[in-house]
Design goal:
about 425 residues; 13 helices
């Protein structure tokens, strides 16, 4: 239907975007008018079963957005979770009533028309509220009081909005011979249109999978209600198409939130194993890699090396130049390790001013060569202050058969290098 592409809502393109929406809406209505003339009636058991699928997708989406809210404190996710939950509960009640009256769909509609439309209005208003909350207060600490406030806001706005509308429009009644058989669907159609435009504008600044999914779902729900406007009897062709599009929109938002949650969890995992200052692996990940290499090398019989590196004189750099320059010195060393590593190597921040490198399938001489190249590269850097490192190398299994023993052996060699440098410096100073 052309709504899945991003529309540029800049001021210069406003008229073109409005014309595009109007043209697409007119096309949908004309298509619905064509469907209206078909002698098609959806079987009530099938319609009820599809509604059950929609309810299941809504609950699943709500559960995933609550997980997102608990992890990110994104209030927009909280509003969406509550909106979809309340809407799904209403739809579940309406669908259960439909299952009990499969032989009297007209009577079912007469009893449940308002409830069904209220669930749609509430969902559209939840999308609008979600955008409003995100713009004014995007993140919040979770608390029972705030949870209740948001729940009351979503429920109250949804209920009273639809109640006022029906008090003006009257009880839902299908006008089979009218130009617009279901005029009350104009309200949810308008609300979903506003939500679709709002989410479309958000794509200019935010382009996560969930943002795209919510935008597509808002357009799909808008289209479904345009089609439903031309439904002249219960479960006719326009009604069946609108139902299919509506349920499909739930699948779209569920897919979007699953993709977004997967990306969020991957980012959380990356942060859990990454040093925040240097971007290298942290101590926890270093130990995991070492233990993995010990197990692998025990099977293959191939040795691997560990290099420990200590940034010389970091305290003096901090005292003389300030801690920002000291942090920059750590990052310079980290970048040197990153650039000088193979894809199978693991550079890591061991702690404080100490770093480490795990070099799979590397012997003692090759590891010493790597350490020398790192020292030479740092010495050639023009940036002030110039930094240097002391290094210690240990090789499995000669240096130890466990991660702890390997690190201890490398640390011992590092200590000996620093001691030798310190003694040499004192000797030069004396003479």
């Amino acid at each position: 239907m052309g709504f899945d592409r991003q529309i540029e809502w800049a001021p210069g393109n406003g008229s073109r975007a409005l014309c595009l929406v109007a043209a697409a809406s007119a096309t949908i209505v004309i298509f619905a008018l064509h469907l209206r003339g078909m002698e098609f009636t959806e079987q009530p058991p099938l319609a009820a079963s599809i509604n059950v699928i929609g309810v299941f997708l809504s609950f699943t989406f709500a559960a995933n957005t609550m997980v997102r809210f608990r992890g990110t404190h994104d209030r927009m996710a909280l509003v969406l979770a509550l909106g979809f939950t309340i809407s799904a509960l209403i739809e579940l009640g309406v669908t259960a009533d439909m299952f009990g009256h499969l032989d009297d769909t007209a009577g079912w509609f007469a009893r449940s028309g308002i409830s069904w439309t209220q669930s749609r209005v509430l969902l559209a208003e939840a999308l609008l509220l979600a955008m409003a909350f995100e713009q004014r207060m995007p993140h919040t600490r979770p608390s029972g009081r705030r949870f209740i406030i948001v729940l009351m806001a979503v429920g109250t706005v949804g209920y009273f909005g639809s109640a006022v509308y029906f008090s003006l429009m009257g009880y839902p009644h299908i006008y089979a011979g009218g130009t617009v058989p279901r005029p009350w669907d104009l309200l949810p159609a308008g609300l979903f249109l506003l939500a679709a435009i709002g989410f479309q504008r958000r794509l200019l600044d935010s382009s996560s999978a969930l943002d795209h999914a919510l935008t597509a779902a808002a357009w799909m729900n808008f289209a479904s209600h345009l089609v439903m406007l031309e439904s002249s009897r219960v479960l006719d062709a326009p009604s069946a198409l609108a139902q299919a599009v509506r349920v499909s929109s739930y699948a779209v938002v569920l897919g979007g939130t699953l993709l977004d949650n997967a990306r969020t969890f991957a980012e959380v995992r990356r942060l859990a194993i990454t040093d925040p200052l240097t971007g290298l692996a942290n101590y926890r990940h270093l130990i995991d890699v070492l233990e993995t290499e010990v197990e692998r090398t025990a099977r293959t019989g191939r040795e691997f090396a560990v290099i420990l590196l200590d940034l010389d004189g970091l305290k003096k750099v901090n005292d003389h130049y300030g801690h920002l320059v000291g942090s920059r010195a750590l990052c310079r060393l980290a970048e040197t390790l990153r650039v000088g590593s193979r894809s199978i190597d693991t550079p890591a921040r061991y702690g404080g001013d100490e770093f480490a490198m795990v070099l799979p399938e590397t012997g003692k001489n090759a590891a010493l060569g790597v350490a020398e190249r790192i020292r030479r590269h740092l010495a050639e850097q023009p940036e002030i202050p110039q930094v240097s490192v002391s290094t210690g190398v240990a090789v499995y299994p000669a240096g130890g058969v466990t991660a702890e023993r390997l690190l201890a052996a490398a640390d011992q060699e590092l200590y000996e290098m620093k001691s030798a440098r310190h003694s040499k410096t004192r000797l030069i100073t004396r003479y």
